[in-house]
Amino acid sequence: MSTYFKRTALVLALTALVAACGKNEEQQAANKPAAAPAVTAPAATPDAAILASARALRANDINAFLSAAMPAPEVAKIKADWAKHMAEKPITDDDRKKFVEQMTKLTAPGAEDKLYAELEPQLKKFDQESAAQMPMLIAMGQGFVQSSIQQSKDVTEEQKKQSTALVTAAGTWAQSVKFTDPALVKAAITAVCQTARDLNFKSLDEVHALSYDQGMLKAGIALGGVKRVLEVYGLKLDQSLDSIKAETLSNAGDTAKVKVTYSAFDQPFTTESDLVRVDGKWYGKQAIEKWQKKLAEENPAVTAPTQAPAPAPAAK
Fold first, then answer.
1. Where are the domains of the chain?
2. CA–CA dist 212, 86 (Å, integer)
């Protein structure tokens, strides 16, 4: 998977935050049975594989994204283990009570005004005591991330250059936004409350009873909510996904290199991704290597599908 998609995939981790406002419940279901999301067909070319992932994220289709980004056996394992993982942590009566209280707080009539009224004193306090420190904190965070990129052994020098540029652009964006602006906070709260209503959850037991397909559908709704919150602050993820273009630079049997161009923070970016073909389908080279390593550790007697060990050099 490309460096861009690794960054984009981090958004998925925020779905639970929107769905349950701080709970580890990113898989919510509707009250009536829902149809399973479509699974992406194997992409015939390396660039088509990149675009399939982008289209899935654009459509908030988490199941299609996983199917495009992960080998079929790994997706099948996730599905098979779904119910077991959902039942791993027993639900207590206190958990149930807190969940209902939180969802009621987010979905009740007038929830937006009540939540803002609770937040307003904290926002004012932050502006008075901490706002002046934000530029320094953002700069420190930016420097830490850039240092981590430079020390990484998993990316090329060109990828480091592009990732550093993206972090710099993100820092510039963060410096330009007043996150405590009342209008922006109210719009963000509205997006969170609407997402909670769309998820339409009544109990925590309902969450844990979800099937895999229901979970993926509701995770997609939550991802849409995350996008709306980010857009309030000027970060238009769908616009960036729409801007993605992929070009296969080289394709030698089961290895390929793809150039990915996209726009973010109103700036153009370019990165290159090494892909490998496994069972007729293209995936990010690093993702496959990690999957094979995990499979070997879990069951040394089973050999994962293989691909050529190294990608072909990029065309000049």
1. 3-298
2. 10
